[in-house]
Amino acid sequence: MSQRFLWFLPLAAALALTGCSSAGEQQPEPGQSQAQQQGGNLDAGQVETVVRNLLGDDPSLTVVGNETMQQQLQMAKGVGSASGITPEKCAKQMEQYTVTDLTASVSATGSVADESLGKVVQVFSITDEATRKKISDALKLDDISGCEKVSVEQSGEKVSAKRQILPLKVEADQALTMSTQMDVGGGQELSSVVVQALKGNSFVIVTFQTGLAESATMSAEAVELINKAFADIDALN
Question: Residue 140's closest CA among 210, 69, 198?
């Protein structure tokens, strides 16, 4: 899954799925933030365990742990979420409902590459109340009227996309589910469903992506997976 594709989300971490060699950021010590004082935070091993449990033993599974995630999150901080998006009003909406700084977290990402369906699971244990509030505010997006169709410039070419917010029930404090169909040329479309949910200090993003138009099936499976994520997190707390 490309970073560019993630930029179509109303709330995006803009993460790469491969690591780099520089040293990761140290995590805050217990008691350094209000979110930690509230309790319910997971450590690096626990967030990785949740990711692995969700995606199973698929041979294509790739897991990125907290140390490498911190490197990627640092790089994502300076990336503009709405770069090249038109219409302009939709770019402004993206800026308003996007959180690109998730460095105040303990996190892990897992991805499964399949010819028919790609899956990405991102689990963040938020360690700072200000970051949690930004996520909460971004998840309040409930109307994209006039921005259902957008385009983004990629490598000098315009890529068009159709988006829809799906009113699906998720077992979380807040959740936002969106389906997207991208025209990738040659008469082909790339479809995705993204569920983003916040419960306590845990923020989980589940992304399904396929070349087949099966949004309804993907949506149900993605919601089921994110509900399982929170059940696993509750069991660890």
Answer: 198
To 10 degrees, the CA torsion angle through 40, 200, 102, 181? 130
Give pLDDT tens digits for 118-147: 899 999 999 999 999 999 999 999 999 999
Query: Taking the C-alpha atoms of 23, 24, 30 and 36 in order, what is their torsion angle to the nearest 10 degrees?
Result: 170
Helices H, strands E: what count in the chain? 7, 9
**Angle at the Cα of 191 from the Cα atoms of 183 and 145, rounded to 5 degrees:** 80
Single-letter code of the amino acid located at 143: D
Q: What is the pTM of this model?
A: 0.83
DSSP SS3 for 157:
strand
Q: Residues 53, 12, 42, CA angle at the centre, nearest 5°?
A: 40
Nearest CA to 46 out of 138, 125, 137, 155 is that of: 125
**Whole-angstrom distance, CA of residue 9 vs CA of residue 23:** 29
Grouping H, G, I as helix, E, B as strand and the rest as coil, residue 122 is strand
